[in-house]
Design a protein that fits this description.
Layout (H helix, E strand, L loop, with lengths): L20 E2 L3 E5 L5 E5 L4 E5 L17 E3 L2 E6 H4 L1 E6 L5 E6 L11 E4 L5 E7 L2 E5 L6 E6 L10 E3 L2 E6 L6 E6 L4 E2 L5 E5 L9 E3 L2 E5 L4 E6 L5 E6 L11 E3 L2 E5 L5 E5 L8 E3 L13 E3 L2 E5 L4 E4 L3
């Protein structure tokens, strides 16, 4: 199935906006209308499964990344079929599908939150709602309203809490929800709310604090237990940002689209430790960085770079 025409907003990020997932032996990728694919370590395709052929309402394409859970690969196929789909990792066969009809413009990657007793819940961010699902069969445990607009950033789950950051034309905001509930938990399990949010980039949780840099280049830090704002500070020359921050070596790395990479301390204080730019590459840096083997992997529209000590 051909993808949407390469025009409009789609040219801002391309056809490969999702991040692959791997179990160490296989690599799983999600390419929108082309479906979910699995490859071995030699690049041989093992299977390919369609999860829908629809298009996002605004023509933005697909962006959600796959999530691995036990023997399943789970994708948020909102633009393609307004559903969350789980496939068998070995065969690509559909194991379960949870419909989300009427919820459009969700580009958020699904995530997991650990619960007491070793149980896990699947978190899905939809416009104005967060869902808590059984990752084994897709059954809905609970839902919570509170963050309006398009659902683009991915949720962070830890210690039984789901941290949500969102934003857009309908407003911005963030909140923490205590997972493990049943039905509508909007009035019973919201731990805190805050006005700071993010339209595109996702947050990262380091220790007791939540960090992110929003699409305008504003760095934010909130206390994870209370939502109290530690800082909200614009990066110098920050500009437009699509990539999510990554934490490594006691630092938070924020890659902007055209203004380079900013290095902040993974501490509750705002300080720019370094600001680096690859002047030889004037193209956009839209991809979130990755850390491997002591190196920082950066992807522009032209090249893949590995930055590290020799």
């Amino acid at each position: 199935m051909p993808e949407d025409p390469y025009q409009g907003q789609l040219t801002e990020h391309g056809y490969a906006s999702s991040t692959p997932a791997t179990d160490g032996q296989r690599v799983f990728v999600f390419f929108g209308k082309s479906g979910v694919l699995a490859f071995d370590r030699d690049g041989k395709q093992l299977w390919q499964t369609s999860v829908g052929t629809g298009s996002a309402m605004m023509g933005w394409g697909s962006a959600a990344s796959p999530l691995l859970y036990k023997n399943l690969v789970i994708v948020n196929a909102n633009p393609e079929s307004q559903s969350i789909v789980a496939l068998d990792q070995n065969t690509g066969r559909q194991v379960w599908r949870t419909e989300a009809k009427g919820y459009v413009n969700s580009f958020s990657s699904p995530s997991l939150v650990d619960m007491p007793g070793g149980k896990q819940e699947l978190l899905v961010f939809l416009p104005d709602e967060v869902w808590g699902l059984n990752p084994g069969d897709g059954a809905l445990y609970w839902y919570c309203t509170g963050v309006r607009g398009s659902a683009i950033p991915s949720l962070v789950g830890k210690g039984g809490l789901a941290y949500v950051v969102g934003g857009g034309m309908m407003g911005t905001g963030s909140m923490a929800i205590r997972a493990g509930g049943s039905g509508d938990v909007t009035g019973s399990r919201v731990v805190w709310r805050h006005s700071a949010g993010s339209y595109v980039p996702s947050p990262v949780l380091v220790g007791d604090h939540l960090y992110w840099v929003d699409e305008r280049g504003v760095a934010c830090c909130l206390k994870a237990d209370s939502g109290k704002e530690v800082y909200r500070q614009r990066l110098p020359e920050g500009g437009n940002t699509y990539a999510s921050v990554v934490a490594a070596d006691g630092k938070v790395y924020a890659v902007t689209r055209r203004s380079g990479t900013f290095v902040l301390p993974a501490q509750p204080e705002f300080k720019v430790l370094a600001h680096n730019r690859l002047k030889s590459d004037p193209t956009d840096f839209n991809a979130s960085p990755a850390v491997a083997g002591g190196g920082l992997l950066l992807r522009s529209n032209r090249f893949l770079y590995c930055i590290g000590a020799k």
